[in-house]
Specification:
The protein is α+β, with helices and mostly antiparallel strands. It contains nine helices and 14 strands. The chain has three domains: 69 residues, no CATH class; 108 residues, Cupredoxins -  blue copper proteins (Immunoglobulin-like, Sandwich), CATH 2.60.40; 152 residues, Cytochrome Bc1 Complex, Chain D, domain 2 (Orthogonal Bundle), CATH 1.10.760.10. Helices cover 41% and strands 19% of the residues. Strand 2 and strand 3 form a beta hairpin. The chain starts with 7 loop residues before the first helix and ends with a helix. Bound molecules: heme C and copper (II) ion (CU). The site of copper (II) ion has 7 residues, from loops.
Length: 362
């Protein structure tokens, strides 16, 4: 009524809400009026003697049956919509939703895409499979009037069909720790064509091998666009918590990235890459950060580089052993993979990147 009705659920829930509210208002006003009337009509100044009434079967029956019907009707109004919300249409597409301290991650099994913003086509039923990797979270889309818990070790579900193109809020509705309030995300409802384009873009990104050649110009051996690229990702995703300048504190306990001391995993570019890929649990502080696997490996690498450039200290040298470890754990960091054109050794490229960052004179 006061909101844009963006789905059938929105209309259903709002209708149930207003029906129940209307019943309450009518009963409240009715009862208050009758009460006032009685107080007035039977005031002792008007009727000093009281008439005794032994009982009235007709009245008893009426005020038993009418409220019972009313209560059953209220139950029906809620239950009919609830049933609809639990019955997923056959043609629904599936998105796996994972809540983790403190971010939402989305996985599209059919396309094998991982992302941090949810994109769905308009007028397409979507089924969400709900997971949590740590504590209770609750996947809440207020515009659609749907909310469902994400329980560790269990799979929950809910579904919706968005009817209006637009961007909608996603909240976590279960207090899940210090940075619960920053656990925000968005649902983008787009037309079919934009959705296909989005999927295609994501797939191209994903299938693009991590190609250091693109960032480091093999001719001049200079950085090309890595830092700019990393900066953009940083400002859209990380700055909420670590602040634009890296000073931290946007979310409780998000560290100051410009300071030399107190790194849990480490300040090397390779360490930061690992932190972004695997997440981090800061046991000492009892805080931590979720993994950012929704960011493509290559962009993660770029962000790591940008983060290292924020520091007011010399980033520790990345050693060949570090690189060896990286390469073992993350084969995607390899160059090659069918790229046409000059290739560069990952080791050399990271060296160059680290050197370039130092020379930029942090
Ligand atoms: C939801 C808030 C939040 C977001 C978003 C976030 N971080 Fe963090 N980050 C934290 C918290 C909390 C910690 C752990 C506590 C601490 O600061 O040591 C942390 C720790 C780190 C660390 C420290 C690693 C170490 O060894 O100590 C790095 C590096 C880092 N984040 C980089 C990033 C980057 C890059 C992004 C963007 C892709 C990002 N963070 C996004 C909250 C966040
Ligand atoms: Cu949560």
């Amino acid at each position: 009524m006061f909101f844009l009705a963006v789905s059938e659920f929105t209309r259903d829930v709002d209708r149930a809400f207003w029906i129940i509210t209307a019943i309450c208002v009518v009963l409240f006003v009715g009862i208050a009026l009758v009460m006032g009337m009685f107080a007035f009509t039977y005031h002792r100044s008007k009727r000093p003697t009281i008439e005794q009434i032994a009982g009235n079967n007709t009245l008893e029956v009426i005020w038993t049956i009418l409220p019972t019907i009313l209560v059953f009707y209220i139950f029906y109004v809620g239950y009919a919509d609830f049933l609809n919300m639990r019955q997923v249409p056959e043609d629904a597409m599936v998105v796996e939703v994972t809540g983790k301290k403190w971010a939402w991650e989305y996985y599209y099994p059919e396309e094998d895409i991982m992302t941090n913003t949810l994109v769905v086509p308009v007028n397409q039923p979507v089924k969400f499979l709900l997971h949590s990797t740590d504590v209770l979270h609750s996947f809440y889309l207020p515009d659609f009037r749907v909310k469902e818990d994400c329980v560790p070790g269990r799979e929950g579900y809910m579904w919706l069909k968005a009817e209006v193109v637009g961007t909608y809020n996603i909240f976590c509705a279960e207090y899940c720790g210090q940075s619960h309030s920053t656990m925000l995300s968005e649902l983008e409802v787009v037309d079919q064509k934009s959705y296909k384009n989005w999927v295609r873009g994501k797939l191209e990104d994903k299938n693009q091998p991590v190609d250091l050649v693109k960032a480091v110009d093999p001719e001049s051996q200079e950085m090309v666009d890595l830092r700019e690229k990393g900066k953009k990702t940083y400002e859209t995703i990380c700055a909420v918590c670590h602040q634009k300048d890296g000073l931290g504190g946007g979310a409780v306990e998000a560290r100051n990235l410009t300071e030399k001391d107190g790194w849990v995993r480490g300040a090397k570019i390779s360490d930061i890459y690992v932190t972004l890929t695997e997440g981090l649990a800061d046991v000492k502080k009892g805080s931590g950060m979720a993994a950012f696997t929704g960011i493509q490996p290559w962009d993660r690498f770029a962000v790591a580089h940008y983060v290292a450039s924020l520091g007011k200290f010399d980033s520790p040298e990345v050693t060949p052993e570090d690189l060896e470890k990286l390469r073992d754990s993350y084969p995607t960091l390899e160059t090659g993979g069918g790229i046409v054109g000059p290739k560069m050794d990952v080791e050399k490229a990271i060296r160059l990147i680290a050197k370039e960052a130092r020379e930029a004179g942090r």
